[in-house]
Amino acid sequence: MNSTRSTQTTRRPPLNWLLILGLGALPLAVGLGRHLDLPALALVGLVTLAWVLIAGLARIGRPVMTLALAGLTAGAYAIVLSALITPMTSGRLQGPVAEPFAIIPVLVVPTIWGLGAGFIALALQRLLTPPSDHHARRLP
Questions:
Q1: Which residues of 61-80 are buried (b: 16+ CB within 10 A; e: fewer)?
Q2: What is the pTM of this model?
């Protein structure tokens, strides 16, 4: 008996790098807010809400990976901006570039933040997907 096996390759949607770079800039508002005496926790909540709503309601492909990379991008932005701004404001280099052991946490913490937001966005996408589409379309 000769059976033909159907091989289907599931192609993941490509990552939208421009969106990732843009979403990665949102957490910069938290640092800016600290200088304006705004509550950091409220700003973190607003950034998380924005990430989840943008990724969830726009039904972007691969929301978990997109928001994890947005978090990583946010950490990279923080490192670069710290290296550029602190010499001008304090007269000497401060931050992760001056303290290299701090680079890893500055990258890891927002990446985990984005990962968590990505799972929430994925849950939102699945919640908004009609039941008949759950089997026809797998969300990453």
A1: bbbbbbbbbbbbbbbbbbbe
A2: 0.83
